[in-house]
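We were asked to recover a plausible sequence for a given structure. The inputs and outputs are reproduced exactly as logged, with field labels preserved.

PROBLEM: sequence recovery
POSITIONS: 669
GIVEN STRUCTURE:
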């Protein structure tokens, strides 16, 4: 009989021991045998490895442990995507996962089939650094400028100030945030490859410290209406305060003019000032308006001296006050109207001496730094028809007169004219102009040393539009350059002869210029203006010209006419000058004009009479000079008992000047 095992015949009915052998062999072939009771069982499978922590998304590096519940099992794993075998890496300790990674593992144990494949993926996404605030949150007394930074490279910061949580849709941080009142700033950092940072929050409590207010500046004298210029001081009661002020109607700030000393107010003006001090809030703005209404009748004119003709006559140039306190001037005419004189006179009117010149000294003298006086003479024909050429001369304090240089041009067309005096430059040399001569016969600018060495610096007619025939001398500007005029231009010339035409001025003869304390230049013309009777003008160093006043002529009782006398700026900040004609009597006047153009006639000279031997002077052709006593001094061309001209003093009560100003160092009338 045949039996089956695993579908195969395993035995048959036979006798004896052969049957038993066949049965045992068949059972062995079918996996039987050795089992209790004669029944077969399958080999167990090792437990699948487990991961701790489990697979997932993390923000930090993970330390992963592997385990199997099968006793004695060994674990093999891969991280490169291949299936692990017993040839793979054997697990011996925790695995550090710093970036996204998949671990696959199997468990292998003796007597067990290999476990099923276990797999765990760890996604590592780091968190961006939390933003940092600077300055840090806290209580402050003043507004804060808050910066936000982040340690994560390339991170973008978003913030809110309204209490909502910041997101990538919030305001992007691009620069410092001004926190002027109590406020909370919340911020996050966002960066590629990173999870958004934690929300950073900073509360700034702004509690301003109430600082005291600086005292309001005080003016002395107080605002009001005055008949003369005022010297205004500004003070403040707050210790250490600095005062800033304006006079142009704008509110003063720390960028305005800093107050360093008394302000001269020569015409109606409003001063506004503010005080600034450490630890104080800026003061209120103080304002003071000074209305200057000069009394037209101010001034007392005193005739100090009348020339008699024998010792000179016809003064045409302004006086200067020497370092000895005496006044020095020139007389165009001597005896028989030939050579003139240089004279010296005390402030009281005492004639201290006259020195005969070789020709006609019609320009003022200048006292140089060596103590000597220097001047020019115009050419003249003497009684015997000999030629007296124009000269440059030196007069010592001991009354010794020396001719330094003689011009050799034909006398009646000579280079030096009645109005061209000298000015001393910073190099010690003397500078002047000639009406004629030069390379083109149109006049020149020259330099002469105190030893008499003359150099022509510039010849007019060299450049198109540079003018010609300068009648007035030069003025030394504060910038070290010289300024002057021709018949139709105003120019600037350097000490080495580089000439720049600043502007055109078609108004006849132009006076010598005077530089005001504002840096601008001022002068007069013989013609031009609304009535063609001359003007007073202002010109900036760059050449912008402004007409301040137009003379009205003889038809007006006060305005004057045809002046070529220059101006002086007196200690009150106003300008003073003379007219040869006009005034109430038609014989000339003394006037004042403010820097803004307010004109006032101060004195009108009396009419000239041929029978009144007590008459005063008349027809002043020269300008004025302010003496060290504050009075104005000048000359008249005619008048006096001999009709030969006078020296006068005009007392206006002006402040004593800090230093005697000599604007006619280059002298024109």
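RECOVERED SEQUENCE:
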């Amino acid at each position: 009989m045949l039996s089956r095992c695993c579908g195969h015949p395993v035995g048959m009915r036979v006798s004896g021991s052969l049957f038993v052998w066949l049965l045992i062999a068949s059972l062995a072939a079918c996996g039987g045998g050795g089992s209790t009771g004669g029944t077969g069982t399958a080999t167990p499978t090792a437990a699948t490895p487990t991961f701790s922590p489990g697979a997932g998304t993390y923000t930090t590096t993970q330390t992963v442990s592997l385990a199997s519940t099968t006793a004695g099992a060994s674990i093999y794993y891969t991280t490169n995507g291949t299936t692990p075998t017993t040839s793979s890496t054997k697990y011996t300790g925790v695995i550090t996962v710093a970036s996204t990674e998949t671990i696959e593992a199997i468990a292998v144990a003796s007597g067990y089939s290999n476990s099923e494949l276990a797999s765990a993926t760890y996604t590592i996404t780091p968190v961006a650094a939390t933003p940092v605030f600077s300055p840090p949150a806290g209580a402050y007394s003043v507004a804060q400028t808050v910066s936000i930074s982040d340690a994560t490279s390339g991170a973008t910061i978003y913030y809110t100030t309204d209490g909502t949580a910041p997101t990538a849709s919030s305001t992007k941080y691009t620069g410092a945030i001004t926190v002027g009142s109590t406020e909370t700033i919340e911020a996050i950092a966002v960066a590629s490859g990173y999870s958004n940072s934690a929300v950073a929050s900073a509360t700034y409590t702004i509690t301003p410290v109430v600082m005291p207010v600086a005292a309001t500046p005080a003016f002395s004298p107080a605002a009001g209406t005055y008949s003369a210029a005022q010297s205004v001081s500004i003070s403040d009661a707050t210790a250490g305060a600095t005062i800033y002020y304006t006079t142009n109607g704008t509110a003063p700030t720390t960028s305005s003019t800093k107050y360093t000393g008394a302000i001269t107010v020569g015409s109606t003006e409003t001063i506004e000032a503010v005080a600034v001090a450490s630890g104080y809030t800026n003061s209120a703005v103080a304002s003071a308006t000074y209305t200057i209404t000069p009394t037209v009748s101010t001034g007392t004119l005193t005739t100090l001296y009348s020339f008699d003709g024998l010792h000179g006559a016809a003064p045409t140039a302004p006086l200067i006050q020497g370092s000895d306190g005496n006044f020095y001037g020139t007389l165009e005419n001597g005896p028989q109207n030939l050579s003139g004189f240089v004279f010296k006179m005390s402030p009281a009117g005492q004639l201290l001496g006259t020195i005969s010149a070789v020709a006609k000294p019609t320009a003022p003298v200048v006292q140089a730094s060596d103590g000597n006086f220097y001047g020019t003479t115009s050419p003249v024909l003497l009684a015997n028809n000999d030629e007296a050429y124009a000269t440059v001369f030196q007069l010592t304090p001991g009354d010794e007169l020396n001719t330094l240089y003689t011009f050799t041009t034909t006398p009646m067309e000579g280079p030096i004219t009645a109005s061209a005096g000298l000015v001393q430059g910073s190099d010690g040399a003397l500078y002047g102009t000639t009406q004629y001569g030069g390379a083109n016969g149109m006049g020149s600018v020259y330099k002469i040393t105190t030893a008499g060495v003359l150099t022509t610096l510039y010849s007019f007619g060299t450049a198109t539009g540079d003018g010609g025939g300068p009648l007035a001398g030069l003025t030394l500007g504060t910038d070290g350059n010289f300024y002057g005029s021709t018949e139709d231009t105003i120019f600037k010339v350097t000490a080495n002869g580089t000439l720049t035409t600043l502007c055109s001025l078609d108004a006849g003869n132009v006076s010598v210029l005077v530089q005001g304390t504002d840096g601008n230049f001022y002068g007069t013309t013989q013609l031009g203006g609304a009535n063609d009777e001359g003007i007073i003008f202002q010109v900036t160093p760059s050449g912008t010209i402004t007409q301040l006043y137009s003379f009205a002529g003889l038809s007006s009782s006060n305005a004057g006419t045809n002046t070529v006398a220059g101006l002086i700026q007196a200690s009150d900040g106003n300008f003073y000058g003379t007219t040869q004609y006009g005034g109430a009597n038609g014989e000339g006047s003394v006037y004042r004009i403010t820097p803004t153009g307010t004109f006032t006639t101060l004195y009108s000279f009396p009419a000239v009479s041929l029978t009144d031997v007590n008459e005063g002077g008349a027809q002043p052709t020269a300008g004025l000079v302010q003496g060290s006593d504050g009075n104005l001094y000048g000359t008249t061309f005619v008048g006096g008992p001999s009709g030969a001209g006078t020296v006068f003093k005009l007392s206006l009560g002006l402040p004593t000047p800090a230093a005697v100003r000599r604007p006619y160092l280059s002298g024109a009338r």
